[in-house]
Amino acid sequence: MSDVPLLKVEAVSLAFGGVKALTDISFSVNSGEVFSIIGPNGAGKTSMLNCISGRYSPNQGRILFSGQEVTHLKPNARAELGIGRTFQNLALFGHMSVLDNIMVGRHHMLNNNFFTGPLYWFSPAKREELAHRRAVEEIIDFLEISHIRKAIAGTLSYGLRKRVELARAIALKPDLILLDEPMAGMNLEEKEDMARYIMDLNAEFGMTVTMIEHDMGVVMDISDRVMVLDFGKKVVEGSPEAVMANEHVQKAYLGEEDPELEGTGEVA
């Protein structure tokens, strides 16, 4: 494992007007880890992922990926560097097929352009597209969604749409994949399947995972390390066992008021 963390967040703060979403957050994620971010609703978890992926630009602090500062890079530039993500609220193209939705995840890898397009049948463009389609079919097989590959995404159940969104994120071939509540709204069987896919992505595909998840059983089972946020502040970071034994964490999840976190305001 490299001495340089794959992801390093240094003293990041984010505010919307007078509302502080994140206050002086620092942490790192090592290559090959499953790193989970937990906390009550409104703790700033999704805001943190949005800062990492480039949807938000922090007011203070910086973010490094593979040793390169990416704090002010746009989301597509970060995707090209190897950061992929899913969303808490599904962001699929509902009118497109499952296959086409996943192919969108390969778009930044295509070398075909306005000039080579007309020569499709006589240029490497055809071979390139076939190679990308083979890669997508492998992802479809991995996530066991062959039976819906031609289905319109908007007609699928919530659990299957979450799986398709994961497939599109995988299609980016990211080194770091950000998962925002990948199991929200799923039944027990769907959660078990998703946990297995995440573990296989990490173990077999070598993808580093940073995940927001409310299901503490899943977090405890598959995470290497866990960070807890509450009211936009970092409460604790460490192994799942150490984190769950922390007094402040227990108070946050039991809904008790923690005097160390009073007066921080609501988090967007």
TrEMBL record:
Give an example GO molecular function.
Answer: ATP binding
Record's GO cellular component terms:
plasma membrane
Question: For the ABC transporter domain, which residue ranges apply?
Answer: 7-256
Q: Does the keyword Hydrolase apply?
A: no
Give the UniProt keywords, A-Z: ATP-binding, Nucleotide-binding, Transport
The family database entries (InterPro entries) matched by this protein are listed as: AAA+_ATPase, ABC_AA/LPS_Transport, ABC_transporter-like_ATP-bd, BCA_ABC_TP_C, P-loop_NTPase
What PANTHER family does this protein map onto? ABC TRANSPORTER ATP-BINDING PROTEIN (PTHR45772:SF1), CONSERVED COMPONENT OF ABC TRANSPORTER FOR NATURAL AMINO ACIDS-RELATED (PTHR45772)
**Protein name per Swiss-Prot or TrEMBL:** ABC transporter ATP-binding protein
Show the taxonomic lineage: Bacteria, Pseudomonadati, Pseudomonadota, Gammaproteobacteria, Oceanospirillales
